[in-house]
TrEMBL record:
The chain crosses the membrane at residues 12-31, 37-56, 107-126, 133-154. Residues 184-247 form the Signal transduction histidine kinase subgroup 3 dimerisation and phosphoacceptor domain. Its EC number is 2.7.13.3. This is histidine kinase. It comes from the Bacteria. It holds the Pfam family HisKA_3. It comes from Streptomyces venezuelae. Gene3D superfamilies: 1.20.5.1930, Histidine kinase-like ATPase, C-terminal domain (3.30.565.10). One of its GO terms (molecular function) is phosphorelay sensor kinase activity. GO terms for cellular component: membrane.
Amino acid sequence: MPLFRPHPHDVLLCVISVLAGLVLWSLGLYTTTFRDLLPAWAALVPLAVMGVVELFRRTAPQPALLIGTAALIADQLTVGNLATVFMFTDVMYAAVVYGHPAMARRLPIVTGVITVVATLLSVALLRTPESVLIGVVTGIVCFGPALTGASVRYHREAADAARLRAEQTALLAEMDRKAAIVAERARMARELHDMVANHLSAIAIHSTAALSIDSADTSREALGVIRENSVQGLSEMRRLIGLLRQAGAEQEPVAVPSLDGLAALLDQARATGAASGLEFVLEDTRPAGGEPLPAPVELAAYRIVQESVTNALKHAAPGPVRVLIGRSGALLTVRVDSPYGDRPGPRAPGSGAGLVGMRERTELLGGEFAAGPAEPVGAAGATGTVWQVRAVLPAEEKAVEA
């Protein structure tokens, strides 16, 4: 608010106070009757000055308080006007409420000290019981408004702080909600990609083969594989839709893929990759009868193998694709080695999202992921370079929850 544009409420307060002071003066109602050094009309000067000061109580509290204090002292040299004193108490209150923080902190202390000093001096000099009233009046005029203003300001600042905290809490909640939505969308995207990529890759490979090779037997075989993968892909899509629609615990739980389904997964991969010269071998070295894996780890391991097999069907050179599953204490190791090199025949396009999804699944569980060319390890008779996908996942429930 500009300095020379008073608040409408302050203008109204000024007009009412000055009019009340004029009425009191016209009726001869003065605060004192023994100060006759100046004529009675002299009391109107401090009243007018205090009225002007009242206009700027909110926009310029510090200058208003200084000028108002001078006007109050001048009023004490005249017959006095009660409206002038009341306007000063309001200016003192406004200085604490609207002034800068340092002034708001100091005024209650300063006015409190002035009240105590005025009481002690009046008692020491006058030595009458009525002298105590001087200190009481000083406290009412100075200390009381300052203390009231400090209390009002404190509650206003506390309310502003509470409102700010509420806004920040709402903002953080909105940010958490958006982050949760983004994370859920990413999870759904990974799940959708992992479920249908294998089937769509097989469809793409065999449809390309059927189009490029003019043979009735080849086309019939390719159409059979395409139909099988289409049906299975549709089933997987329906499972995902059922999972998304599941709203409460009263509904039937949807089955989640586990490592027990790797054999069926590789059987399907063998049928799809036979034409490309790919062989799929599963080596599960986990001890029999061991503790079950946490559901998130089980699903992540299955999806990593599924995506690795899908990538092998798309890009691997002819040869064996080895899937190795092992568990050592609190760690589950998943490794897929596929032949690395040029591949003849049709190839399905890749987007690169598979590696990103596998890495995200692993890191969300606090595991380690690596993918790239490597020398074959632990495979009898294996030679040459392989493309190795390796993930190490926590195999204990508490590790996953942490």
